Amino acid sequence: MNRSDVLIIGAGPTGLVLGLWLSKLGVRVRIIDKTSAPGTTSRALAVQARTLELYRQLGLADTIVRRGHQIAAANFWVNGKPVAQLPLKRIGEGLTPYAFVEIFPQDEHERLLLERLEDYGVNVERNTSLESFVENADGLTAHLRLPDGEQEVCQACYLAGCDGARSVVRKTLDSGFPGGTYQQVFYVADVRASGPAMNGELHLDLDEADFLAVFPLSGEGRARLIGTVRDERAERADTLAFSDVSRRAIEHLKLHIEDVHWFSTYRVHHRVAEHFRSGRAFLLGDAAHVHSPAGGQGMNTGIGDAINLAWKLAAVLGGGAEPKLLDSYETERIAFARRLVSTTDKVFSFVTAEGRMADMLRMRVAPFLIPKMAAFEASREFLFRTVSQVTLNYRGMPLSQGEAGHVHGGDRLPWVHDGEGDNYEPLRQPCWQVHVYGDTSDEMIAWCHEHHLPLHVFDWRPAFETAGLGRNGFYLLRPDTYVAIAENSADPKVIERYLRDHGIRPYFN
């Protein structure tokens, strides 16, 4: 029987990132997908700053920035005229190396991930589906249906369900998927067009007509339209054509559609699985949580799931941690998913609400408030921090400990880049490491050397204080660059106790 360390069900971005991260860490993976070929169309567009930060560990970030498109501004239209603009260029200045809004469509994203997986000798097995699996003493036994219709029995140490909202893995685990479905029907279309809204920026129509957003794509005259379909048309969503969508919203944005490359309709759901793990099987991405497209969070959250789980699986499989480390995956990711669904639900409901009051808020109040908000750096920074996922943290959770400066255990390490260096450079390696800003003890230096734990000591400078980092303490960083320990002392026994309590031996990595 075929055996792998991790059997991954589903070859969307979540499954591919999981496979790529595990392969980089020396884990044998097998990826199957029921489709015959990679997708050529997609709904997901945005690659958030936090995802790009983590992609540095795979050498992907620079390629995506080069191939993608950065949005300079968001423009809001009412009654056929642009009434407000929110500048987005360098909106996260000083917070991250990727202080912008990056557009890189999911289909192109998947192709890039597939290319990198091939470098590790991993190919997706197409037209192959999971029929069932059972857990046994030392792993899982799965039954697969192959392209020729034959059944294969295979074994794996762990199984990852990255198989979307209709997940076979989730149904097999009998995990509930509470939530609901919005009444609106969405459409998405890739078009070639001309007009003032085709200037490489984001444009949104706030009128009482069907909601419409125009997202620029790389290449002259290319854009992605995302809009709603209301009234009786929503009852026949499965048979709608582009000619059925509201011309009114398109005309309000003064768009001249020259060609429609692709068109599809879909409904938006908001659900979070009751559990993200059962024994040796895990749920990730849309199999674990689905929500509205507000803020471009969906694909990025699935990628975050994959990165969170990958280093933990690699540690357990490689002898660098006890299996109890895997308990933290659900604890950390389900909390974030629930917050995200709640947040995007509020934004989505405001944008798509119907009625006189909702129309007045969108058409009169929002255009008045947006320019005022954009004028304040604090407002722009808050918006960027929220959407970019750089504020995602695991504070108060089992793997998070302590506080030093303004940084808590569980936080993303603040980025500092000035004329004297970049404290994120060591993070390119997905391994446990210690950061010290200022001075440290001889004991710390000796202990880290003895245990083969990378230690990076940065000479103290004002930029570190500005970023909220503590002086002369230390930060123990996880392989996914989140802070495990924030500590004001320079005592390595703090690290020793933490690792012992959690059953982690990072120097095995």
TrEMBL record:
Keywords: FAD, Flavoprotein, Monooxygenase, Oxidoreductase
Residue ranges of the TM segments: none
Cofactor: FAD
Domain FAD-binding: 4-342
One MF annotation (Gene Ontology) recorded for this entry: FAD binding
One Pfam family linked to the record: FAD_binding_3
InterPro entries, per the entry: FAD-bd (IPR002938), FAD/NAD-bd_sf (IPR036188), RIFMO-like (IPR050641)
Top-level taxon: Bacteria
Descriptive protein name: FAD-dependent monooxygenase
Organism: Pseudomonas hamedanensis
Phylogenetic placement of the source organism: Bacteria, Pseudomonadati, Pseudomonadota, Gammaproteobacteria, Pseudomonadales
